[in-house]
Amino acid sequence: MAISTETPPQQQHKGSSEGAAVDQKRWTLNDFDIGKPLGRGKFGHVYLAREKRSNHIVALKVLFKNQLKQSQVEHQLRREVEIQSHLRHPNILRLYGYFYDQKRVYLILEYAAKGELYKELQKCKYFSERRAATYVASLARALIYCHGKHVIHRDIKPENLLVGAQGELKIADFGWSVHTFNRRRTMCGTLDYLPPEMVESVEHDANVDIWSLGILCYEFLYGVPPFEAKEHSDTYRRIVQVDLKFPSRPVVSSAAKDLITQMLVKDSSQRLPLKKLLEHPWIVQNAEPSGVYRG
Ligand SMILES: Nc1ncnc2c1ncn2[C@@H]1O[C@H](COP(=O)(O)OP(=O)(O)OP(=O)(O)O)[C@@H](O)[C@H]1O
């Protein structure tokens, strides 16, 4: 199978803007050769596929409409598609387009050849500081890009991260993301009359992603999330109290702990901004400048 990862699937309407082309092309199942299954999720299956005309390799996610309806997630899926199809960043999984038939919805996704990060973490138990810092820096860059477009991910966790052929991290699941600008518009009609504290709350909201990235950084280095507990109520309490403890094993540098401590701050306005994170000594000294961890 000829593998091309550079060019997106052919688009029908040349000359239109990239984002518009995604919407305008009318795909059907006949446009693809279907390959091996890549995995299955709650609502359907994911297959390796090749777009016939361009030979472009993609991941085709097939979702069953009746299951989406039953779980009342159609609205969430629509939002996910709307948001993800407009994002272009090396660390964000591309959504090239979608189509549907009577029973199914198909999402045409960028293929992430190295699969789920979650499985890698399980295999290694925890990552080296170099690897963790490289991942955290790429995620910070992807989130800065999202926040610049008023998109908050809200669900950054290892299960939602895939790894590309070069070892680059890809944020994959935008099911819980929100476009704050849209939300504000529907609520208030226009931004013009909003007081500063409400306009600022866009950034304020975005700080939830800094918290999640702090949790993820901890999990990369220790193999478990920081507030884990047997009982749900205990996890809740530990989060609310920010009951942050650093075990003595595995050994983790004080610079890494300092960064995590600056991200896991209860007052969301006091969390280390993502741009500052990229300048933190632990990131500067450990993250691969290429943004790619090759092992
Ligand atoms: N773009 C992709 N490239 C490579 N493998 C993928 C891709 N998307 C999904 N997969 C594989 O298919 C599996 C199922 O993906 P899917 O997104 O449907 O399920 P999920 O992550 O469990 O999400 P959900 O809980 O929303 O169903 C993933 O766990 C992953 O192994």
Can you characterise this structure?
The chain is α+β, with helices and mostly antiparallel strands. The chain folds into two domains: 30-110, Phosphorylase Kinase, domain 1; 117-286, Transferase(Phosphotransferase), domain 1 (Orthogonal Bundle), CATH 1.10.510.10. The chain has eleven helices and nine strands. It has helices spanning 18-24, 65-70, 74-84, 117-124, 129-148, 180-188, 196-222, 232-240, 254-263, 274-277, 281-286; strands at 32-40, 44-51, 57-64, 95-100, 104-110, 151-152, 161-163, 169-171, 178-179. It has a five-stranded antiparallel sheet. Strands 6-9 form a two-stranded antiparallel ribbon. It starts with 17 loop residues before the first helix and ends in a 9-residue tail after the last helix. The model is unreliable at 1-23 and 182-189 (pLDDT under 50). Adenosine-5'-triphosphate binds at residues 38-43, 46, 59, 61, 93, 109-112, 115-116, 162. The site of adenosine-5'-triphosphate (ATP) has 17 residues, from strand 1, strand 3 and strand 5. InterPro entries: Aur-like, Kinase-like_dom_sf, Prot_kinase_dom, Protein_kinase_ATP_BS, Ser/Thr_kinase_AS. Pfam families: Pkinase (PF00069). It is found in: Cytoplasm, Cytoskeleton, Spindle pole; Nucleus membrane.
